[in-house]
């Protein structure tokens, strides 16, 4: 799993590119070691800004097209749900404690859980097609191999890299 990068403050396209350069690409290189993968992010404005898409294109980074407003399709949203549930149990008192707890829980997410979430994407897509684009009631399903997925997050903006 990729490392967690907490960005304090708002994020715009320039900061998004900075995070991609400094954190996401090094994680991608380390975890995929030159193997092809597809980059996935949500449709937040910093991700879809022309400067960001041009930057990705210049680096020949393949991007998975992702429908807007579709958290039910994203495995990363499930990870945030797991972490939020853990935070309610742990009840950190300060911002520093919250950050430390989030990092611990991020690091504690088991590879089989990631595999389960990633392998559920085709089923989620099929469900959306059957529902003609309506939201799904997706939760969790399982399978895949540990080296096949990298999930990085930047201040709640989901950025994922998937093996092709």
TrEMBL record:
One of its GO terms (molecular function) is nucleic acid binding. InterPro entries: RNaseH_sf, Tc1-like_DDE_dom. Pfam families: DDE_3 (PF13358). Residues 6-98 form the Tc1-like transposase DDE domain. This is Tc1-like transposase DDE domain-containing protein. The lineage of its organism: Eukaryota, Metazoa, Chordata, Craniata, Vertebrata.
